[in-house]
Design a protein that fits this description.
Blueprint lengths: L5 H14 L5 H15 L6 H36 L26 H17 L5 H10 L9 H14 L2 H4 L1 E3 L5 E8 L18 E7 L2 E10 L7 H26 L21 E4 L7 H10 L8 E5 L1 H8 L11 E4 L2 E4 L2 E5 L8 E5 L3 E4 L5 E7 L4 E14 L5 E6 L3
Parallel strand pairs: 1-11, 5-14, 6-9
Antiparallel strand pairs: 2-3, 4-13, 6-10, 7-8, 8-9, 10-14, 11-13, 12-13
Helix pairs in contact: 2-3, 4-5, 6-8
């Protein structure tokens, strides 16, 4: 009796599905789930499965498009005939339009309805499918329409792309105010004599409280925004709001004053020459010894995560001239990343020219207590649409000695 190999069985299965393409969305999704399992096997025929997945996705998209067109046509007929388009005929049963389907803020139907409603409600509302209408009505409460999960995640992802510092600090997502304790003064450990009493040291902690300050971005565009497709509108809106919010969040992390906004690195300590700062004369240029002295001022306990923080102009105007391959190798590169004496360099144009920080960015604690919200309104006076993005953010350095600063004397 011959033995049928697993490879033969896989090929047989692939051929079967190639000749018997699923005809419904549910069957397609079942096949896609089965392919996920097959891909976990090291013997999986990747090339064949890749081709099959492309065909399945294309057919699924076609079925969904046809279903939406069918639904729109039925709605148009219902509007003309007074809500009785079938006259005794049963409407086609579409998998996406099951009446018992539960909708959440993460449902695709809610996301598309939310975008259409935000885009221009008077233009797109009539084109909402029945599922989109049900999803929007079910999820929206008295407080208004919640930003869909995917849109919110997209904005947060883009904010982190445009504000790299947000990924480097200790970012919390805790609702409301946050209070945490950090070491203020900790005595050194002592040698202990056997059987002698141990007296506790007077170690102290200090409490740091983070609240929530609003960061907003108002985008105003002409009525021509209705000419955008929904997908183009989503990409444009999330990019615009995320970029501007990222700029403000980065500014707060670096130089926030701490009164009506978060406390930035600049306010972490009083910068004292030879203690936690190195000052270059107003008419002088940065020297190698200045860089070495700055590094020496940072306590060794922060070295593992320490990074330089400066503008690109400062890197190339002040630090690059110190580079001399025949004598030293102060600045090195790996791809597009720069390193100064082995410390990674984070570039941010919000830092003043000729200034730089060296320290552990993770000691800065931030909190974003709620997701970004977006609201829209039509301004009749300007014949334009306004979109307001709002986020809550606060931050504060938790260790005063975790940074040292390079500064330039006033001229």
């Amino acid at each position: 009796m011959s033995v049928v190999t697993s490879e033969f069985r896989k090929r047989l299965g692939l051929q079967f599905f190639a000749d018997n393409m699923p005809n419904t969305i549910e069957e397609i999704e079942q096949r896609l789930s089965a392919i996920q399992v097959e891909l976990e096997s090291p013997e999986a025929n990747i090339e064949a499965l890749n081709g099959e997945v492309d065909k399945l996705i294309a057919k699924r998209n076609q079925l969904k498009a046809n279903a939406e067109k069918r639904s729109n046509l039925l709605n148009q007929i219902a509007n003309i005939t007074g809500g009785t388009p079938f006259q005794g005929l049963n409407p086609p049963q579409i998998p996406e339009q099951r009446n018992n389907q539960e909708f959440t803020v993460g449902s695709p139907e809610y996301r598309s309805a939310w975008l259409k409603n935000l885009h221009c409600s008077q233009v797109y509302t009539p084109s909402l499918t029945e599922q989109e209408k049900r999803a929007f009505t079910t999820v929206t409460d008295s407080a208004g329409a919640v930003v869909p999960t995917q849109v919110s995640n997209t904005i947060i992802t883009k904010v982190k792309q445009f504000a790299p510092l947000l990924d480097k600090i200790n970012l919390l997502r805790v609702p409301g105010n946050v209070t945490f304790a950090v070491e203020k003064e900790v005595k050194d450990a002592k040698a202990h004599t056997e059987n002698e009493n141990i007296t506790p040291d007077a170690d102290t902690l200090t409490k740091i409280t983070l609240s929530a300050y609003e960061i907003t971005k108002l985008v105003q565009v002409s009525k021509s925004v209705i000419m955008m497709s929904i997908s183009a509108f989503e990409s444009w809106l999330t990019d615009m709001i995320a970029r501007k919010m990222a700029e403000q969040i980065s500014k707060v992390i670096i130089s926030g004053a701490g009164s009506t906004e978060g406390t930035g690195i600049e306010s972490a300590a009083a910068w004292t020459n030879d203690t936690n700062a190195v000052e270059v004369g107003s008419a002088a240029s940065l020297a190698t010894n200045d860089v070495l002295k700055l590094i020496s001022l940072l306590p060794g306990g922060y070295d593992a995560r320490a990074e330089f923080l400066m503008s690109k102009k400062t890197l190339f105007v002040d630090f690059m001239p110190l580079q001399d391959k025949s004598k030293n190798n102060i600045v090195t590169t790996e791809g597009k990343d720069y390193y100064i004496y082995g410390y990674h360099v984070v570039l941010d144009e919000r830092i003043k020219e000729h200034e730089a920080y060296l320290g552990d960015l993770y000691t800065v604690v931030g909190n974003m207590p709620e997701d970004v919200t977006i609201t829209s309104a039509f301004d009749i006076n300007t014949n334009s649409y306004k979109f307001l993005g709002c986020a809550m953010f606060d931050c504060k350095p938790s260790q005063a000695d975790a940074f040292v600063k390079l500064k330039k004397a006033d001229g």
